[in-house]
Design brief:
- The structure is a single chain.
- By secondary structure, the protein is of the alpha/beta class.
- The chain folds into 2 domains: 258 residues, P-loop containing nucleotide triphosphate hydrolases (Rossmann fold); 233 residues, Dynamin, middle domain (Four Helix Bundle (Hemerythrin (Met), subunit A), Up-down Bundle).
- It contains 25 helices and 9 strands.
- It binds guanosine-5'-diphosphate and magnesium ion.
- It is found in: Cytoplasm, Cytoskeleton, Phragmoplast.
- Belongs to the TRAFAC class dynamin-like GTPase superfamily. Dynamin/Fzo/YdjA family.
Length: 627
């Protein structure tokens, strides 16, 4: 039979661990509700000065909460009570001060005040950021209690108008969770019909299943009146019995009346009261603590299956996330080198998929050849270069002091060679365009390599080494394509000129076989040779020769570019990187595998959480078997 303590203690332990992990209230990227939310806790709700903090202190049996009139509790206080072995010293611990054990409870109170002010300033403002406090004591029952700011009706001096609503919203956010047990505090010296606590509890828990009605200040009721109507459930019926409480009055507090004394006085009050003596075994803060603890145990017992299933689901989720994040890296150089090469392979595979299809991007290279290059070739300024004026100028210059006699051989050569130079531009532009496509694909492939995500340093180095290789390929490609252009200039296609209709034939008899007799008649054709139509014909011949070369280059430049850049990128993109890695020492390899700190943090968080959930599962198993 698992004892009450072991069950609630277990939940407390889990909640505490959740708290330390920051695993409460969700919003940390885990999709399932957190374990904390699945576990029950007790929230104390009531109007300002109704006695909430006093009730908590009575339950704990210790004097440690800031108390008084006005708004004192300005941040939620999550109070975890851990029962320890008899004879052990009592101490308290704050989540925000994990190393410090408080044995002086006056200092605990001061720290609560200071920590409240740290967030809200010394104002009357409130904050929903909870303070977490654990108390370890043999005199407590295992419980998690949450002290909340009191509900108010009006804002006081120094508070914004919105505070009334803000407090209500904050309190509501705690009590509306189905796992929350509501400790609804109402003062007996006020009409229960005006109780803020009951009003809110009824809204969030209409059936009253999880609401415990607590009536404080019984000692302050007017003489001749009593609270039996409420305590006996006639005034307002709840599923659980009402509990009457007599806390220390302000005067007691001022006189430093000991909590133990106060508890005794409370017991005596009920035992000797003519109105309540018949109820005395079911009144008082000690009884309330036991009642809550018992209820909590029943709730937890009923929830064990769903808690276990939540834990199992979360463990599955965490484990799959761990797989996704990757396991921690091995320490020795061999394993590291192996991992780096694995990662390179994964990247290289994706890069090739981009080029060969399967992934987009490789088609943009074809775009360069099919679109950009032909357009660039078409747009070359041959019109201007082969204008009548320029042709005449180039030809005349080539002729020198003696004008050409038959065909302007030198003029042709010069015109063609200078025209061919223009092809360097589009050739180099194609090389560059493909270079940028490849670079972009490297960048994309790195981003798309899941396995690389955790290694930003390696990503950078891989990119740098790849860019270095691409740069080398570009240079090679540039040289090759320019060479293609130069080759065109270094030997002209004789065929072409052979096929040209010979002007001289039109001008007179066969020019090549001309005899001195014929040349006597040459004055007229010579005139013709320098006429506009003569130069126009030269321009048109050169132009069609250039057109023919453009056609050729349109085909050969892509071949050169693919050969030098694309094919090389597929074959040896990472060679440079491999050479570098091969020279690295163990320490440098480890540096390359430097993980993204955010990721490392996430993995650690995951691992810690996994550990927590697994140990929670073991604990719950143990407790349920013990039943
Ligand atoms: P909270 O604002 O709801 O947390 O209320 P506190 O616990 O701070 O109590 C407000 C004031 O009411 C304090 O001065 C307490 O001493 C006083 N008080 C609370 N409960 C009782 C009670 O049962 N009897 C008497 N006489 N005074 C009480
Ligand atoms: Mg209070």
């Amino acid at each position: 039979m698992a004892t009450m303590d072991s069950l609630i203690g277990l939940v407390n332990k889990i909640q505490r661990a959740c708290t330390v992990l920051g695993d409460h209230g969700g919003a940390d990227g885990f999709s399932l509700p957190t374990l904390w939310e699945a576990l029950p806790s007790v929230a104390v709700v009531g109007g300002q000065s109704s006695g909430k903090s006093s009730v908590l202190e009575s339950i704990v049996g210790r004097d440690f909460l800031p108390r008084g009139s006005g708004i004192v509790t300005r941040r939620p206080l999550v109070l975890q009570l851990h029962k320890t072995e008899n004879g052990q010293q009592e101490y308290a611990e704050f989540l925000h001060l994990p190393k410090r054990r408080f044995t002086d409870f006056a200092l605990v109170r001061k720290e609560i005040q200071d920590e409240t002010d740290r967030i809200t300033g010394k104002t009357k403002q409130i904050s929903p950021v909870p303070i977490h406090l654990s108390i370890y004591s043999p005199n407590v029952v295992n419980l998690t209690l949450i002290d909340l700011p009191g509900l108010t009706k009006v804002a006081v001096e120094g508070q914004p108008e919105s505070i009334v609503q803000e407090i209500e919203n904050m309190v509501r956010s705690y009590v509306e969770k189905p796992n929350s047990i509501i400790l609804a505090i109402s003062p007996a010296n006020q009409d229960i019909a005006t109780s803020d606590a009951i009003k809110l509890a009824r809204e969030v828990d209409p059936t009253g299943d999880r609401t415990f009605g607590v009536l404080t200040k019984l000692d302050l009721m007017d003489k001749g009146t009593n609270a039996l109507d409420v305590l006996e459930g006639r005034a307002y019926k709840l599923q659980h019995p009402w509990v009457g409480i007599v806390n220390r009055s302000q005067a007691d507090i001022n006189r430093n009346v000991d909590m133990i004394v106060a508890r005794r006085k409370e017991r005596e009050y009920f035992a000797s009261s003519p109105d309540y003596s018949h109820l005395s075994s079911k009144m008082g803060s000690e009884y309330l603590a036991k009642l809550l603890s018992k209820h909590l145990e029943a709730v937890i017992r009923a929830q064990i299956p769903s808690i276990t299933s939540l834990i199992n689901k979360t463990i599955d989720e965490l484990e799959s996330e761990m797989n996704h994040l990757g396991r921690p890296i091995a320490g020795d150089a061999g394993a590291q080198l192996y991992l780096i090469l694995e990662l390179c392979r994964a990247f290289d595979k994706i890069f090739k998929e981009h080029l060969d299809g399967g992934r987009p991007g490789g088609d943009r290279i074809y775009g360069v050849f099919d679109n950009q290059l032909p357009t660039a070739l078409r747009k070359l300024p041959f019109d201007r270069h082969l204008s009548l004026h320029n042709v005449r100028k180039v030809v005349s210059e080539a002729d020198g002091y003696q004008p050409h006699l038959i065909a302007p051989e030198q003029g042709y050569r010069r015109l063609i060679e200078s025209s061919l130079n223009y092809f360097r531009g589009p050739a180099e532009a194609s090389v560059d365009a493909v270079h940028y496509v490849l670079k972009e694909l490297v960048r994309k492939s790195i981003a798309e390599t899941q396995e690389l995500r955790r290694f930003p340093t390696l990503q950078t180095e891989l990119a740098a080494a790849s860019y270095h290789s691409l740069e080398k390929f570009r240079e090679e490609s540039r040289k090759t394509t320019v060479r293609l252009v130069d080759m065109e200039a270094s030997y002209l296609t004789v065929e072409f000129f052979r096929k040209l209709p010979q002007e001289v034939e039109k001008a007179g008899p066969d020019a090549r076989g001309s005899t001195p007799a014929n040349s006597a008649n040459n004055s007229a054709p010579t005139m013709d040779r320098y006429s506009e139509s003569h130069f126009r014909r030269i321009a048109s011949n050169v132009s069609s020769y250039i057109g023919m070369v453009a056609e050729t280059l349109k085909n050969t430049i892509p071949k050169a570019v693919v050969h030098c850049q694309v094919r090389e990128a597929k074959r040896s993109l990472l060679n440079h990187f491999y050479a570098q890695v091969g020279r690295k020492e163990a320490k440098q390899l480890a540096q390359m595998l430097d993980e993204d700190p955010a990721l490392m943090e996430r993995r650690q968080q995951c691992a810690r959480r996994l550990e927590l959930y697994k140990s929670a599962r073991d604990d719950i198993d143990a407790v349920s078997w013990a039943r």
